[in-house]
């Protein structure tokens, strides 16, 4: 097989989701069928080769797995063949093979099909063990998929490892009442970060699920609770328990409420449903509902659907942050502990983002229709957002559209779903620019194209979703062009002495860590720093002279807050210079504030005599 090999960095720029470019992996094109192959850029001493010898099959697997981790792919153990005095074993890339069609075409599947991870990759290592020696028989290096970047290599499945001691700790902490997320945070802190831990919460959940105690209670939790109550009743006849079920009236009101709040298209329809609901359940005198009605334009979705909220509710952002930080801080957390835990919380959030990027790179979502639009969305959108688009697109196949008006370039369609043919949604389509707008306003409110818009696009024979309906924030390349903290601080953040000092300290720390490894690098860095210090002092004197001449010429003292700060005073944490003198400043803790609900409880009073310690039912003046 012939290949035309080029270095990735010499080609046109690719996105992170097309290829790894952090180490210049080579890209080769099969001249026969044009297949793109990726070759890891690793040193020769780390790469296996035909004829390489190992003492055992296990050691050959360990070597190939270590090579895979450096290269950015995961390994899986494949077939074994046994001869009279030989054993042949094959290790393959985890993307080897394809999903069998019978699993794709299943109609009795109860769960959502898993994402597709098999791409038919041919990369593999075959070894033969004979006479107590294991020799590499075949080595295929090229991959037909992009390789993972170093920031994602700790997520590779074959690189994960959990020791028996870690398993015991997880079981013990879980039995003590700690949540798995808290156990994960503790172990990551001990390991020096989530990347050094070697496993994630999914692996920890598997340990608990496979434990004997979990297997005994799995699926029988409610029954065991009832047995516990019955046992308590046998021990103590006065013990009472009951099980309360949802009443039909409560369920009925909830259905009406949900239909009124989330099932109406326009303010007029909402107001009609609301009044009918209030009348049906005799809720005219409920003050809370009357207040909600007066303020309906501030919270009701039909009044806000013209504004983009990414599908978030009014308090969802606040509740999400509260949920995120509840595992890290509480009312007794000190300032220093808060800073440390806040840093750990950010590390966990970034780790979660890296794992989601890894899944978007290595997994392809299951396609239900396998049309041009669905394939387009699967290639462009992140996994989570694709799962929001896909149900709408699939539902559009059960929608019926009727052209009701055509004036110039604008068309009006009535779209109905087969589940409710009486309800019609008006969709406008303008041929110029392929503009579509639905009365449900799902795209305007959530950024997700609704099934009614998909239906009209199909009627107009548009095989790909117009790019202006794919928001960049939903795409795999949403961070393209973003400069992270690892790439330095932008010029706009260097306007004050403290910011410039922080920026230089960041790079100085990196230089010190790199320069201290070998004596040669140490001497080179030391000379550069000495030279840089002399140049810096020279420039500082020139700037001071220039500033003094400028002030003398203008007669006005140039006051620049950002440049008038004494850098020595900024560095000193205890002594701050003021008019040539040294002054000791003590930094005090902030004032404590009462937490929500901790204030002095107000005694209730009788509504008849207005006195405390009793109510209207036993009032002496009654």
TrEMBL record:
A GO CC annotation given for this chain: nucleus
InterPro entries, alphabetized: FAR1_DNA_bnd_dom, FHY3/FAR1, Znf_PMZ, Znf_SWIM
A biological-process GO annotation: regulation of DNA-templated transcription
Keyword Metal-binding in annotation: yes
Domain SWIM-type: 425-461
One Pfam family per UniProt: FAR1
Main location: nucleus
Molecular function as annotated in GO: zinc ion binding
Family of the protein in this entry: Belongs to the FHY3/FAR1 family.
Protein purpose: Putative transcription activator involved in regulating light control of development.
Name of this chain's protein: Protein FAR1-RELATED SEQUENCE
Species assigned in the record: Tetracentron sinense
């Amino acid at each position: 097989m012939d290949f035309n090999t080029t270095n990735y960095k010499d080609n046109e720029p690719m996105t992170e989701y097309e290829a790894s470019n952090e180490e210049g992996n080579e890209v080769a094109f099969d001249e026969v069928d044009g297949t793109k192959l990726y070759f890891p850029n690793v040193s020769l001493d780390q790469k296996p080769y035909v004829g390489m010898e190992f003492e055992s099959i296990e050691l050959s697997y360990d070597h190939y797995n270590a090579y895979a981790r450096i290269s950015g792919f995961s390994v899986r153990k494949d077939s074994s063949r046994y001869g009279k005095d030989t054993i042949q074993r094959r290790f393959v890339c985890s993307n080897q093979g394809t999903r069998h069609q019978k699993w794709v075409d299943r109609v009795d599947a109860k769960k959502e099909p898993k994402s597709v991870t098999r791409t038919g990759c041919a990369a593999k290592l075959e070894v033969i063990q004979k006479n107590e020696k294991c020799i590499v028989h075949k080595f295929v290096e090229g991959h037909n998929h992009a390789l993972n970047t170093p920031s994602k290599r700790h997520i590779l499945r074959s690189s994960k490892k959990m020791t028996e001691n870690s398993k015991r700790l997880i079981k013990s902490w879980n039995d003590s009442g700690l949540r798995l997320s808290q156990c994960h945070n503790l172990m990551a802190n001990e390991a020096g970060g989530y990347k050094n831990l070697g496993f994630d919460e999914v692996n920890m959940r598997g340990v608990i699920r496979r434990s004997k105690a979990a297997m005994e209670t799995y699926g029988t939790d409610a029954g065991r609770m009832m047995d516990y109550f019955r046992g308590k009743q046998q021990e103590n006849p006065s013990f009472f328990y009951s099980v309360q079920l949802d009443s039909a009236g409560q369920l009925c009101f909830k259905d009406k409420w949900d239909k009124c709040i989330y099932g109406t298209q326009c303010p007029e329809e909402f107001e009609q449903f609301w009044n009918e609901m209030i009348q049906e359940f005799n809720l005219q005198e409920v003050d809370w509902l009357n207040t909600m009605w007066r303020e309906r334009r501030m919270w009701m979705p039909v009044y806000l659907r013209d504004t983009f909220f990414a599908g978030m509710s009014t308090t969802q952002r606040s509740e999400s942050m509260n949920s995120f930080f509840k595992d890290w801080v509480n009312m007794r957390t000190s300032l220093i502990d808060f800073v440390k835990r806040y840093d750990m919380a950010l590390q966990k959030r970034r780790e979660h983002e890296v794992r989601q990027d890894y899944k978007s790179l290595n997994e392809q979502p299951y396609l239900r229709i396998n049309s041009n639009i669905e394939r387009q969305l699967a290639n462009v959108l992140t996994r989570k957002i694709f799962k929001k688009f896909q149900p709408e697109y699939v539902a559009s196949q059960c929608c019926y559209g009727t052209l009701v008006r055509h004036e110039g370039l604008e068309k009006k369609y009535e779209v109905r779903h087969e589940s409710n043919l009486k309800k019609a949604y008006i969709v406008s389509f303008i041929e110029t620019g392929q503009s579509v707008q639905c009365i449900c306003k799902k795209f305007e409110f959530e950024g997700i194209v609704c099934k009614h818009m998909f239906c009209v696009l199909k009627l107009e024979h548009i095989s790909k979703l117009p790019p202006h309906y794919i928001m960049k924030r939903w795409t795999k390349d949403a961070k393209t062009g973003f400069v992270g903290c690892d790439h330095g601080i932008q010029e706009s953040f260097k306007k004050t002495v403290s910011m410039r000092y922080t920026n230089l300290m960041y790079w100085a720390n990196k230089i010190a860590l790199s320069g201290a490894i070998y004596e040669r690098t140490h001497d080179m860095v030391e000379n550069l720093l000495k030279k840089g210090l002399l140049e810096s002092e020279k420039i500082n004197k020139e700037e001071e002279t220039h500033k003094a001449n400028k002030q003398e010429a203008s007669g006005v003292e140039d006051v620049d807050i950002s440049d008038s700060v004494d850098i020595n005073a900024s560095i000193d944490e205890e002594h701050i210079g003021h008019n040539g003198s040294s002054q000791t400043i003590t930094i005090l803790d902030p004032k404590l504030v009462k937490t929500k609900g901790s204030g002095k409880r107000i005694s209730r009073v009788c509504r008849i005599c207005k006195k405390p310690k009793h109510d209207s039912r036993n009032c002496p003046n009654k």
